[in-house]
Each structure stands twice: as structure tokens, then as C-alpha cells.
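Lab meeting, item 3. Inverse folding demo.
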């Protein structure tokens, strides 16, 4: 399997340490890369996300821990991956896999405080996202409001991570 540039050693060490076998890539984004994996600790396939940056890893783990504390497995009828484990040394997060409808990818989320964007940036953001989601935008706004109620402010919203 070809590994994304920059992740080779991290992924190889994770597989050895956790007796994991990576199955297939689910995608690479600005905050990390995700694979399906299998290991003896989990009964079924799971997803593992590898981060290169500590700050992105810390934010995403924080969101998953908050969701776990709140026992949140879905938001407005959309499944949310469940935290299965995390490796602080290797910046790896293990989570359950989900099928649409779902909400995932919390590397761009903030806990308890929204990002410090200007009113103009927020206006442009809402305009862009409403165009991206078209008729689903009102439901996405409800989903985002539910996350905000949990203290999770999601800045990276796109049809790939909130899917209907």
C-alpha cells in the first residue's frame, strides 16, 4: 500500500504497536489521513486517522472525548463516529466507521469557543456553505446548532463530512 508522504514512519509504527493491518484509504485532508483498519482489539473494521500536527490532533481528540462524555452517537439523525482509542505519541485516533447520513472529521472543530473570525468572514462562510449544501443547508444549520449546544464549533463543514 502506498502511504501518504510524511506519514510513512508514523503509520508503520502504529501498525506494529497496535497489531493493526490497514485495509484501504478513506481519504486525506488538511488535518490528516484516514484508513480502515483491523486488529485483534476490535471485532470489526474501524477507521484510524493519522495527524501530522499536534494542534489538529489535540482538537479532534478533544471533540471525540466530548462526544463520548455526552454519549452522542448521532446528531439530528446523522451518525457520529465513536471513539475507540487514541495514541497520543503517534497522533492517531481510532474510531468506528459510519454510513450516511453522518457527520465526521472534527480536525477543524473548536471546543467551547468558536474560531475568532470577523463578521465578514462568517457572512462569507455561511454564503459559501449554503451554496455547497443547497436544499440541505437548513438541516446543516440545525446540525451545527446541536454541535454548538455540546460546545463543539465546527468550522470545516462540507458535503463530504456532513453527508445525507
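The presenter then showed the designed sequence:
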Amino acid at each position: 500500500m502506498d502511504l501518504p508522504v510524511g506519514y510513512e514512519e508514523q503509520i508503520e509504527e502504529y501498525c506494529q504497536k497496535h497489531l493493526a493491518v490497514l485495509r484501504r484509504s478513506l481519504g486525506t485532508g488538511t488535518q490528516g489521513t484516514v484508513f480502515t483498519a483491523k486488529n485483534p482489539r476490535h471485532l470489526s473494521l474501524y477507521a484510524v486517522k493519522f495527524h501530522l500536527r499536534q494542534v489538529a490532533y489535540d482538537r479532534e481528540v478533544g471533540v471525540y472525548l466530548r462526544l463520548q462524555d455526552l454519549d452522542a452517537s448521532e446528531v439530528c439523525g446523522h451518525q457520529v463516529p465513536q471513539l475507540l482509542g487514541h495514541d497520543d505519541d503517534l497522533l492517531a485516533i481510532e474510531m468506528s466507521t459510519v454510513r450516511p447520513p453522518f457527520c465526521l472529521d472534527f480536525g477543524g472543530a473548536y471546543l467551547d469557543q468558536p474560531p475568532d473570525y470577523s463578521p465578514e468572514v462568517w457572512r462569507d462562510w455561511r454564503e459559501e456553505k449554503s451554496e455547497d449544501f443547497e436544499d440541505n443547508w437548513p438541516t446543516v444549520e440545525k446540525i451545527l446548532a446541536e454541535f454548538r449546544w455540546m460546545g463543539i464549533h465546527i468550522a470545516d463543514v462540507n458535503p463530504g463530512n456532513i453527508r445525507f
